[in-house]
Amino acid sequence: MASDLEKATTEAAGCSDVYNSPTTYQRLVNYIFGPEKKEVNPSSTTSTASAPDTVEHDLELEEELNNVPGSVTDINMGLSKQSRWRRLFFPQLNKHSLYVYGSVTALQNECARQEAAGVCIIHPFSPIRNYYIMFMVFITFINLIAIPMELAFLEGEHTEGFHLMIFNLCSDTLFLLDIAINFRMGVITEDSEMVLLDPKLIACHYLKSWFVLDLISAFPVDYVILIVKELEEDQSTTTYTASKLVRIVLFARIFSLIRLLRVSRLVRFFSEWEQVANSNMEAVRLFIRIICLFAMILLLCHWNGCIQYFIPSLQDFPEDCWVVRENLTHAPWIEKYSFGVFRALSHMIGVGYGSADPPTGEAELWVVMTSMVSGALMYTMMVANVAAMMTNVDAASKAYRSKFNHLEDYMSYRKLPKNLRSRISTYYQARYQGKWFDEREILNVLSESLKVEILGNLCSDLVKTVPMFQGRDINFINAVLLKLQCEVFQEGDIIIREKAAGDRMFFIEHGRVMVKTEQNFCTELADGDYFGEICLLTKCRRTASVQALTLCNLFSLSAEKFNEVLQEFPEIKEEMLSTASQRLWTLQDFEDQKQTPLPENGTKIKETSTLGV
Ligand code: CMP
């Protein structure tokens, strides 16, 4: 597979510079398969792609991919010979398509499948599909604004009415064309696992799903109205025929409301957009949902405003209707529209603003009731969506606050002393720094190499400062990093108590500690030092107490993990034993000096070691 890939990349016309470059090639494969799947690439045995660079590499690679003049189709299918526009119908080589298909080869196969499916099938991940959806969203939105507006306010307005008529005729044609295009538009299946490219399957799927609704909403009402109007003007009709035509136009006007069903297209486009957009990016989905929500709310207000005016206009403005009461019968359409929207909002939000009198007629009553219900629905929809969004936004900070509140409740429930409470709060803030993550759980779902990369980043200071890690075999460093546990101690905390049993040792990332014994031996350790190892090596009790002198960021290594590492790297064991032995000598010396007065020449010779090393 890899050799095919290499061959394909070298054969690629126009893209060869990028794909032939061994570093880019290597990075491409790393990018797709991740560092642990290097065996896919024949040259990966010599690969030195350093893990911490991966993110930068991804970004650079993405940039390079974007600069490639064609797409993956050029690489494998030889489409570069064909006209440029055809490329727009095929999926592109980018981060998202790689995420969906998993590898360049799979993407190439997809292109081949599309090629086999026949002419003019638009792939759901192709650029043209994105442009088309954006264009149709725009047209649908304008339609959904213009249709009720025209129906309610612009009937008889010559200039605006004429422009709208032209626009409506164009969009009627477009929506009919859209139905035809949908028969050639690849479909992503419900589970997002497959893309249907066979024209028969696409047609079947479309006929079963949106076809009927699309067909009804694309009914070219404007053509009908235009023809009827032409007849009305041209014929020197009898009174009977004229009244019949007027009724037909009125019916056509109301019937034209079915075009509002085009809102279904908006819903579909948004959901497809969400589906095609990088589905593993919460931010993208959130953004799309917010746009969708706002668009729907705007539409609802607009429609409601139009209905407010449309119903009295259908009844030929009865005397007690709000339009007559506000003296708007002959006002310009923009004034009527503004009042209509104002009334709609007053009902929907439930704010009576003086001028909104109680409804008089039966029809007005129903309009107001509909407004109120739609307003309540809008409100619910908004609250539900915003709440859902807020739950997803900054979940770590929320978890932190909730845990902190829980902790505070616990402290007051247990009636802990003030001083202890403040120490606990300070610890919590220093340890989690405003965000709560279950690091163990997060790391457990990642591969070993990624874990090492993350830990390498987290413990970079430690690796730099601890002399034990300097110039060491990378395997040793990785083995230790994978086993470390982050711990924070505050000033004054007793980290180790003398004569206690020990279960772990510590590396100091930041901070200072005091090592002291009952015999008043004192020494300080700081960044890069380690302590607590003697107990693990000798399996005896702690030889000294260790107290934090400042806020300390430490990494601990449990006894079990410590033994595992030492078993694997005996040379480190030797080194640790020698340091431990020196430390014990120092302690012993100090004790001896305290107990025995110094001989006259001031020297004392050590005979035994408690370590037995
Ligand atoms: P342990 O005995 O497990 O717990 C106390 C720790 O203090 C001990 O391991 C050493 O890591 C550390 N320690 C003991 N003596 C000295 C010393 N002389 N200098 C530095 N650190 C010491």
What this model shows, in words?
- This protein is α+β, with helices and mostly antiparallel strands.
- Helix content is 62%, strand content 7%.
- The chain contains 28 helices and 10 strands.
- The strands form 3 sheets. Strands 3-10-5-8 form a 4-stranded antiparallel beta sheet. A 4-stranded antiparallel beta sheet has the order 4-9-6-7, with no helix packed on it.
- A hairpin with a 6-residue loop joins strand 1 (187-188) and strand 2.
- Helix 15 (263-276) runs antiparallel to helix 16 (282-314) and helix 27 (559-568) crosses helix 28.
- It is elongated, with a radius of gyration of 37 Å.
- The two termini are 55 Å apart.
- Residues 1-81 and 598-613 have low confidence and may be disordered.
- Adenosine-3',5'-cyclic-monophosphate binds at residues 496, 502, 515, 523, 531-535, 542-544, 546, 583, 586-587.
Relevant terms:
613 residues, elongated, voltage-gated potassium channel activity, binds adenosine-3',5'-cyclic-monophosphate, alpha+beta, 4-stranded antiparallel beta sheet, 62% helix, ion channel, potassium transport, RmlC-like_jellyroll, 7% strand, transmembrane, 28 helices, 10 strands
